[in-house]
């Protein structure tokens, strides 16, 4: 679906926002006259009050300039924040995508509203239907163009530009996650990352031989039961000052997590196609930065592996040596994400001097129990980065919630045979996972970990901004955090 902005437009469908208990806006006057006053009547006749999410529509006479007029509830104008504005665009796409009409024009009050409504529309128009081979024409969306009409087209377009980039990043992350694990595995994920060179990113891919030379025994250990080769992908966006240290984004990219020898139960295991959600978020964020030509140096690093049970797989009891030199006793092969990230974090610090590191991972089932599907878990010892990530998440509707860390939790990782074990006890599973990662972060390094296991996909918890399974959580938050803190 194409998004455009204009000061005037003619479209098959015209849509107007009606404030709660409000009147027909001035922009709708012409169409109201053409309909013989039907629009004003529609507001007063039925239960339509303009509450958020309400819609009513009128079929227009042949001679009118639109075929259909949609009146959409805008709630109370004072409460119409960015989220509410996005939802208006999204609700319209949802209700009109299959209408049979091709074009829609939404009348917006100002440029900020116009851009946010466009973002909502763009995200809601996302489809992942490549694998349906039998869709008939009338099962595919008819809507091709979404025009936002607003008094100041230029300002609206300028406000849309960064949001469009973020939306592209989100949709890439969704695609990567929605793809099945027989199609998207470490090598093909790396291929897709390589394609981002066209966007101006510098991309380097390491295979198993190179990682062996670097001693990345933790990451390689996870992948050793798979016939698919493990990969490390490094993406650089150099939009900042030459030579300035970058911000590093690290992602867990377990393309499929069976649990390994500590095999997961069968029901629901297919969801583990999304266990590369952290890597997808990082990749999407890198695309967003490139699309809007961010004035910052950022490096994205993703560890890509598949966790399989196999004659060659790691066993409970195995001791792995990570690239940092620290040894890890593997007591549960299903706690694999932290093993992958241990070596990715090491690489990020060994090869760059990151101003800050944020890692993202679908790391623990425990975070889904703690926070459900509406906040990602945030772990860090640094109040400043915690505050900034929290603000960026609130601004973009990808919320994070901080949980504690501390030496008492770290003590739960003590192993009988090695420097640490890869699981804690029965309690505080998300915190002990974060403590494990912290052991691979150098003293003084600014770092935060986001556990996105509860927010990366939607499982019966669909949002108006996303009709598909994967949410594409991360790129909007990361892009905003970088824009607000690392660009002047
Ligand atoms: N990928 C899972 C975490 C997960 C669970 C993500 C549910 C999304 C939804 C991770 O690799 C895992 O299996 N973690 C274990 C750790 C445990 C063995 C200490 C878990 O959470 O059960
Ligand atoms: Mn696992
Ligand atoms: Zn996992």
Write the layout of secondary structure elements.
Layout (H helix, E strand, L loop, with lengths): L1 E5 L6 E6 L10 H6 L3 H8 L9 E5 L8 E6 L8 H15 L6 E5 L3 H14 L20 E5 L3 H26 L7 H9 L7 E5 L1 H6 L3 H7 L7 E8 L8 E11 L19 H15 L5 E11 L11 E3 L5 E3 L7 H15 L5 E5 L3 H7 L4 E4 L3 H14 L3 E3 L4 H4 L9 E2 L7 H10 L8 E5 L23 H11 L3
Parallel strand pairs: 1-6, 2-4, 2-5, 5-6, 9-10, 9-13, 12-16, 13-17, 14-15
Antiparallel strand pairs: 3-4, 7-8, 8-10, 11-12, 14-17
Helix pairs in contact: 3-4, 4-5, 5-9, 8-10, 9-15, 10-14, 12-15
The protein binds ligand BES, manganese (II) ion and zinc ion.
Regions with little confidence, pLDDT below 50 for 5+ residues: none
Number of domains: 2
What value does the average pLDDT take? Answer: 97
Give the overall shape, derived from the CA principal axes.
elongated
Rounded to an integer in angstroms, the radius of gyration calculated over CA atoms is 24 Å
The CATH homologous superfamily name of the largest domain equals Zn peptidases
Looking at the structure, the CATH topology of the largest domain is Aminopeptidase
CATH class of the largest domain: Alpha Beta
Overall helicity: 25-40%
Q: By helix and strand content, what is the structural category?
A: alpha/beta
Main sheet record? 8 strands, mixed
Strand order of the largest sheet: 7-8-10-9-13-17-14-15
Number of helices: 15
Q: What's the architecture of the largest domain, going by CATH?
A: 3-Layer(aba) Sandwich
């Amino acid at each position: 679906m194409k998004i455009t902005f204009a000061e005037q437009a003619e479209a098959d469908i015209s849509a107007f926002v009606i404030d709660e208990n409000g009147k027909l806006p001035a922009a709708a006057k012409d169409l109201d006259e053409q309909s013989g006053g039907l629009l004003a009547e529609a507001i007063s006749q039925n239960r339509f009050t303009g509450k958020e999410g309400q819609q009513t529509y009128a079929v227009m006479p042949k001679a009118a300039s639109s075929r259909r007029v949609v009146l959409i509830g805008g709630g109370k104008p004072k409460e119409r924040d960015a989220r509410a504005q996005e939802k208006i665009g999204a609700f319209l796409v949802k209700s009109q995508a299959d209408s049979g009409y091709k074009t829609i024009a939404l009348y917006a009050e100002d440029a900020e509203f116009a851009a946010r409504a466009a973002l909502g529309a763009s995200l809601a128009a996302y489809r992942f239907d490549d694998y349906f081979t039998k869709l008939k024409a009338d099962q595919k969306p008819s809507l091709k163009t979404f025009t936002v009409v607003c008094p100041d087209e230029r300002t609206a377009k300028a406000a849309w530009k960064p949001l469009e980039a973020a939306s592209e990043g989100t949709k890439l992350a969704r695609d990567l996650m929605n793809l099945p694990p027989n199609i998207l595995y470490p090598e093909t994920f790396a291929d897709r990352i390589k394609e981002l060179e066209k966007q101006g990113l510098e991309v380097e891919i390491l295979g198993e031989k190179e990682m062996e030379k670097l001693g990345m025994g933790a990451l390689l250990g996870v992948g050793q039961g798979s016939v698919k080769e493990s990969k490390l992908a490094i993406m650089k966006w150099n939009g900042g000052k030459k030579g300035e240290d970058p911000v590093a984004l690290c992602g867990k990219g377990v393309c499929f997590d069976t649990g390994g020898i500590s095999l997961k139960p069968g029901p629901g295991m297919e969801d583990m196609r999304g266990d590369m959600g952290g890597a997808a978020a990082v990749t999407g964020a890198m695309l967003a930065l490139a699309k809007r030509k961010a004035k910052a140096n950022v490096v994205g690093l993703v560890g890509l592996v598949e966790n399989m049970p196999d004659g060659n797989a790691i066993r409970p009891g195995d001791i792995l040596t990570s690239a940092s030199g620290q040894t890890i006793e593997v007591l549960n092969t299903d706690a694999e994400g932290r093993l992958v990230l241990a070596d990715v974090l090491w690489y990020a610090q060994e090869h760059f001097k990151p101003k800050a590191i944020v890692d993202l991972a679908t790391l623990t089932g425990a975070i889904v129990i703690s926070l459900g599907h509406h906040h990602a878990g945030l772990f860090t010892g640094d109040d400043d980065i915690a505050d900034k990530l929290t603000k960026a998440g609130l601004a973009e509707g990808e919320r994070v919630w901080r949980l504690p860390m501390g030496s008492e939790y770290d003590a739960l990782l003590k192993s009988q045979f090695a420097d640490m074990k890869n699981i804690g006890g029965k309690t505080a599973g998300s915190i002990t996972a974060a403590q494990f990662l912290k052991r691979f972060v150098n003293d003084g390094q600014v770092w935060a970990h986001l556990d996105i296991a509860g927010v990366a996909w939607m499982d019966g918890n669909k949002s108006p901004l996303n009709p598909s399974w994967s949410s594409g959580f991360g790129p909007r938050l990361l892009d905003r955090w970088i824009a607000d803190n690392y660009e002047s």
